[in-house]
Amino acid sequence: MKLAGELTRREWLCGASLATGGLSLARAAAPPSAPVAIARCPSYEEGLVTRLATLFDQVGGVDKLVRGKTVTIKLNLTGSPSLRYKGYALGVTHYVHPKLVGACCHLLGKAGARRIRLVECCWASADPLEDYLLDSGWNVRALAQTAPLVEFENTNTLGKGRRYSRLKVPHGGYLFPAFDFNHAYEETDVFMTIAKLKNHATCGVTLSLKNSFGTSPASIYGDDAGEEEANESPRSGRGRVFHSGQRGPSRSAPQELHPDSPRQGGYRVPRIVVDLVAARPIDLQIIDGVESVAGGEGPWIRGSRPVRPGLLLVGRNPVSTDAVSTAVMGYNPRADRGTPPFRNCDNTMKLAEDAGIGSADLNRIDVRGVPISDALYEFESPRKG
């Protein structure tokens, strides 16, 4: 079976060091990218803290990164808590699992983090993040006690800040030159993301890069955003502004660079994601692949289904982390539009690579722990479930 229509799985995964072609040889000769570590983790019930601590150590440790600092962690809570797969808790399908978040906060607190702030742009809501988590079945009180100081903020609006933080896109931007964010994304020393290992209907895969789509406040970039100023009571998603480009963000924020560019989600969303990540770089990425979903990002995607890869991944560069994660899912992370999983979209990782954010070339990525070939879990295999 040919993987992504190019190399066999054995040639691609096991023979990566034997790069072919001038460009591949050049990449292979270049210095390795930031490390990515993989671990088997069959459940959220046993050994989670130990496995995550080992992964942290394998990518260089977190003590120096977080000691005495404010750490902001972007969660992945896609869609309303009321939307779920029948018979499944949210954390074992399309939300990151609360026990993984708790394990992460515990280890960061143990490493000396001064303050840990958990953030998410709660779907179509300006309510406190704590309420959203309670609706999702999380034990907020227990989570708050995993480290000396754990805070929560819904970054869909101005929230607890006095003003929005405008962060520029260093490469100039594919579609936006800068974004206005909730203050939490600027007022932090370390920015982390905890994402789910899963497919995405628009972008093919949704991992650490795509998780940053949810850093954009709906008050400014939502369908019901104010025309001139932010709407501090948003009750919608970002379909018209980001996905289809039918309207712009509030005029209080920087506007789109190329309003004549394609109005198609598979073109727009990958580029907006890269612009967002460039504006607010991610220092550490955790990918929750213990239990997840395949075929889409949530129960609203027809044909999506729960799966149990039994994996955790940690990395220090979002492009490299996503490239390894995509390979683990059985795809070529350098595949072009029209090839699974990027059937109707451009490859976010290649766009990020071209913007100078990181490498999606497996030849250059230092993979530690379980090898990709041993961790392989084909998301498009009907036998997986």
Write a structural description.
With 385 residues, the protein is of the alpha/beta class. It has helices at residues 9-14, 22-29, 48-58, 63-66, 98-110, 129-135, 140-144, 208-211, 218-221, 239-243, 265-279, 318-328, 348-354, 372-375; strands at residues 2-3, 7-8, 33-40, 70-74, 115-120, 150-154, 165-168, 178-181, 190-196, 198-200, 204-206, 284-289, 292-294, 305-307, 311-315, 365-369. It has one domain. It contains 14 helices and 16 strands. The strands form 5 sheets. It has an 8-stranded mixed sheet, sandwiched between helices. The protein has a two-stranded antiparallel sheet with strand order 1-2. The protein has a two-stranded antiparallel sheet with strand order 7-8. β10 and β11 (204-206) form a beta hairpin. The radius of gyration is 19 Å and the shape is globular. The model is unreliable at 1-30 (pLDDT under 50).
Summarize the structure.
The protein is α/β, with parallel strands linked by helices and 385 residues long.
What distinguishing features does this structure have?
globular, two-stranded antiparallel sheet, 16 strands, 385 residues, alpha/beta
Q: What is the average of the pLDDT values?
A: 92
Span from first to last CA? 21 Å
The secondary-structure class comes to alpha/beta
Strand content is: 15-25%
Give the helix tally: 14
Q: What is the number of independent domains?
A: 1
N-to-C order of helices and strands: EEHHEHHEHEHHEEEEEEHHHHEEEEHHEH
Q: Find the count of extended strands (DSSP E, 2+ residues).
A: 16
**Order of strands, widest sheet:** 6-5-4-9-12-15-3-16
- Helix % is 25-40%
